[in-house]
Amino acid sequence: MSAGSKKGVSDMELMLYADGELSTDESRRVAARLAEDPDARLKLESLRQVGEAVRTYTELETDRAEAELPAFADMWQRIERRIQANGRAPAPDEAAPTPMRSKAAAAGWWAGIRRWLEDHRGHVLTGAFSAGVACALMLALGPRVRVVERVRDGAPVVGTPAVLRSPPEVEDLEVYEGSSTILTIEPEGSDDSAAAVIWISDDREAKKESPL
Amino acid sequence: MIRFRRHAFALAMVALCFMVGARAGEAQNAPPPGAADCQIFEIKASNEEGGVDPALRPLASKLKKPPFSSWKTFALLKKHDKSVERMKTLSIGLVTGGKLTLLFRGASGGQPNKSRLRLTFTLDDKSGKRKVDGTINVDSGDYSLIGGDSVEESGTYFMAVSCKVP
To answer: Residue A43: inside a domain, yes or no?
Structure first.
């Protein structure tokens, strides 16, 4: 019975019949079969009940959405006006803001952003996904360099870096006795080389005079 | 249809990003130079009279900056010119009795006419005890100034390492 009744009325025909979407001739043929087939009549009744339940649920959800989302109500009212106008351009008074529209407008730019996001959700998600993939690629293919820079009792030398240079970077550093200070000396004047300074201080001699 | 086109455009952008990333990856994975030419200067800084050793002229401007501006005199103790093969450790005996090892891990074309070098170094004292190890990323020709030990009572010892690739 899943594909159709034994007497030639398929489930699809029954659904179309229940929704009034069959042609006149087809409707007559299905009606004739229904008159002879109690099982098909029972199935038709079930289909109508299910359809009614779905429509009721949809209407309730739509009412709720209208109440909670001014943008949705606004959109629905525009659709209704369009249907009533039967395709003609809306009159100036019809285009005037409705109370719901005014409410949405009053919500300001935030309501505008929400409305835009609602209308372009798919594109926003696609864009976010694309950006995520691009970032993942950049992270995966970019240089894996961890910069450690620590300054103690002294200021790092800061200069204007040359446009086409990258400053030296200390990827990792392990000092087994004492502590370290890392500075960067930028290129200056005719000297186009930079320098990384790794200054190691012996903690046992910490009280000795140190430049840092 | 418009929605489909926009999605297709976004997917095309992703594909473009992928191709750009792949190109970047290819550049990074290009065969690195087989060796780097390195200069190692062993330097003593002090406040004695003397000024900057002429042999340290390439470093002169850097020696005027902190922390080196604390000293008036910089003397070259020894200079080493070495070719460091990629992924082969080079060991250098220092005038302090300690030891410096250098490992040229590779170079990438970071910028036009400039290569970015990745170097690992260790520094041991004269008793063989490890003092420091680290890895640095520098442009070809940049310096790494490493040190801070006392030397000869009145001075401070540090070294300058500069490596270049063709």
So the answer is: yes
Query: How far is it, in rounded angstroms, from Cα B68 to Cα B144?
Result: 13
With contacts defined as CB-CB under 8 Å, which chain B residues touch A212?
Answer: 67
User: Can you give the residue ranges of every domain in chain B?
Assistant: 1-30, 35-164
CB within 8 Å of A210: residues ≥ 6 apart: A153, A201, B148
Two tokens, residue B37? 């030419």
On whether both A97 and A167 belong to a single domain, the answer is no
Query: Containing domain of residue A200, as a range?
Result: 144-212
Domain boundary among A83, A107, A131: A107
* One domain, residues A86 and A160: no
Between A60 and B158, where is the model more confident?
Answer: B158
The ipTM (two decimal places) reads: 0.77
Q: Which of B6, B9, B14 to mutate to test the interface with A (most CBs of A within 10 A)?
A: B14
Same structural domain, A71 and A24: yes
Enumerate the β-bridge partners of residue B139.
Answer: B116
State the DSSP code for B98. Answer: -
User: A157 lies in a domain?
Assistant: yes
Single out the residue in A79, A107, A135 at which a domain terminates: A107
Per the domain annotation, does A205 fall within a domain?
yes
Contacts of B49 (CB under 8 A, 6+ apart): B72, B73
Q: Provide the mean pLDDT of chain A.
A: 73
Whether chain A has a CB inside 8 Å of the CB on B34: the answer is no
- Identify whether A176 is part of a domain: yes
**B98: distance to nearest CA of chain A, Å?**
15
Query: pLDDT tens digit string along A165-211?
Result: 688 999 999 988 888 889 899 888 778 889 999 988 876 655 555 55
